[in-house]
Design a protein that fits this description.
Blueprint lengths: L1 H25 L1 H27 L4 E3 L3 E4 L2 E4 L4 E3 L2 E2 L3 E3 L2 E7 L6 H6 L1 H8 L3 E5 L5 E7 L18 E6 L5 E5 L16 H12 L7 E3 L16 E3 L2 H12 L1
Parallel strand pairs: 12-13
Antiparallel strand pairs: 1-4, 2-3, 5-7, 6-7, 7-9, 8-9, 10-11
Helix pairs in contact: 1-2, 2-4
Length: about 250
């Protein structure tokens, strides 16, 4: 009977591994809630005090002192105290932790410790924000959202462009009706032209007029000349196009 039980146990383990791999690939959110989140929450709870001590997030409290006659009697030795944290709350592909700051602490210290939290919790990234005074919100992302962005579920609206994925894995939508003016700035090769091309290709199928002003001689927007309602490639042409738009 023992060989049969061993074979049965191995078959069950193999079946669980196969099913787990299928769930991980086709239903990553389910896999995260069932296995990833409990493990990550345990890591957060078990490593928090050590990470806080190593990254100067803990505060040493002075010992109690009592004056007895002319003698100063000291209490317990100085011990660093880590900030209090909430229980890790699961998100779709990560978790969030609320930290209550010690007096005198600022979120800047936690921003510097973000990389240490990534390695301690074995996640892809940790974002630090401060929703209100005295609190810090740590948002951990389990995996790179660009691997499985899931952009197909993004709503298609007029004057809206689906740009990419947010750090949460959701869709990043640029809605020009809500925010009509955008300034895209960045260093060379930081992705400005790629972002602009994405906006144009997303707006191209929509019944809208697209006017381009490219004072590089059309080097950036010349590829989209067939779709653009007007394209200015010099300052003189830009003045003429802007004047026509105003009229």
């Amino acid at each position: 009977m023992e060989p049969i039980l061993i074979a049965f146990a191995l078959a069950v383990v193999a079946w669980l591994l196969v099913v787990g791999d299928l769930v991980r690939r086709h239903r990553p959110a389910w896999h995260w809630y069932l296995t990833g989140y409990p493990v990550a929450a345990w890591r957060v709870a078990s490593t928090w005090r050590r990470v806080a001590l190593l990254n100067d997030l803990a505060v040493s409290r002075l010992p109690a002192r009592t004056l007895v006659g002319h003698l100063l009697v000291k209490g317990d030795p100085v011990r660093p105290v880590a900030p209090r944290i909430s229980f890790p709350r699961a998100t779709r592909m990560g978790l969030t932790v609320v930290v209550r700051l010690h007096a005198g602490q600022t979120p800047a210290t936690y921003m510097q410790a973000a990389d240490a939290l990534v390695h301690a919790w074995k996640v892809h990234a940790v974002r630090v924000t401060s929703p209100e005074r005295g609190l810090v919100l740590l948002t951990a992302t389990a995996t790179d959202p660009l691997l499985r962005p899931g952009l197909a579920s993004a709503p298609a609206e007029l004057l809206s462009a689906l740009i990419g994925a947010l750090e949460t894995g959701g869709a990043w939508v640029m809605n020009l009706r809500l925010v009509p003016h955008w300034l895209i700035a960045g260093a060379t090769r930081s992705g400005k032209s790629t972002l602009l091309a994405r906006v144009i290709t997303q707006l191209a199928p929509q019944p809208v007029a697209l006017v381009g002003i490219d004072c590089k001689g059309g080097m950036e927007l010349g590829l989209f000349a067939d779709r653009l309602s007007a394209l200015a490639t010099s300052r003189r042409e830009a003045v003429a196009v802007l004047t026509a738009l105003v009229v």
